[in-house]
Design goal:
By secondary structure, the protein is mainly alpha-helical. It has helices at about 35-60, 70-100. It contains 2 helices and no strands.
């Protein structure tokens, strides 16, 4: 196969989970979900992890649950989720500041 002849390349197949609407006329909604929707979904997942963590800890302290492993795992999962959310927030704030400092 000649590396400069692009006609000999095999056809690309779409990734799983992508929609054929990617070539939409609206560039802000090309993939079907907006960036804001993705952030909101991620925040809801972090909130759900925090709520589950609190409930597991409450159940352990009240004696309703005796499985300490499950409670500790839920707390650690909530902690890691929160740390990741804060890291993403920091990156977004840094990116916003960088864009605002650009000179036109």
């Amino acid at each position: 196969m000649d590396p400069l002849n692009l006609n000999q390349l095999p056809a690309l197949t779409p990734l799983a989970g992508t929609s054929p609407q990617a070539a939409s006329s609206d560039p802000g909604n090309a993939g079907g979900t907006s960036f804001g929707d993705l952030l909101q979904q991620a925040l809801q997942e972090v909130n759900a992890a925090q709520t589950t963590s609190e409930q597991e800890a409450r159940n352990l302290m009240s004696g309703e649950a005796t499985d300490m492993h499950t409670a500790i795992l839920a707390v650690q999962k909530a902690d890691v989720s929160f740390q990741m959310m804060m890291a993403v927030r920091s990156k977004l704030v840094d990116a916003y500041r960088a864009v605002m400092q650009m000179q036109m």
